[in-house]
């Protein structure tokens, strides 16, 4: 089953980006966490079963730094939780889907993640993520 896992928001810094979510009455879930593989510092706000993930670049090579050179801060991607990411990649590849990497890589909280090209996503960068068994 596919479920919304999170929306990713690009921000130059986590404190500035947090303001609207704090005003809505949400609190960060756990400490900020760096995901080296993606070059991002992440702050998570849980909203029911899904999350808002604020993404600040850790350096100029980060995909988020490059995004913010060309775009305003704001919605960067939507992410969908799948049970078996390898099977889902194979299934979508067979339909002609365009992934941005060959295989799933490391995401936040020991998830495995992969991105699909925004053109495939009809203008939205889409992520698939698989949580460790028994967690979400
Ligand atoms: N949402 C929608 N469209 C996007 C986009 C986004 N977030 N980022 C780029 N695009 C579009 C651009 O508008 C551009 O479209 P056109 O060709 O129509 O002009 C096209 O994609 C290419 O964009 P670009 O600015 O030239 O950027 P790059 O090719 O250098 O990289 C992308 C774009 C998506 C391939 C790259 O950012 C990537 O590989 N992303 C996946 C990894 C990632 O985003 N990691 C950060 C999040 C980490 C996390 O959640 O943990």
TrEMBL record:
Residues 3-131 form the VOC domain. InterPro entries: Glyas_Bleomycin-R_OHBP_Dase, MeMalonyl-CoA_epimerase, MMCE/EMCE_epimerase, VOC_core. Keywords: Metal-binding. It comes from the Bacteria. The keyword Metal-binding applies. Belongs to the methylmalonyl-CoA epimerase family. This is Ethylmalonyl-CoA/methylmalonyl-CoA epimerase. The lineage of its organism: Bacteria, Thermotogati, Deinococcota, Deinococci, Deinococcales.
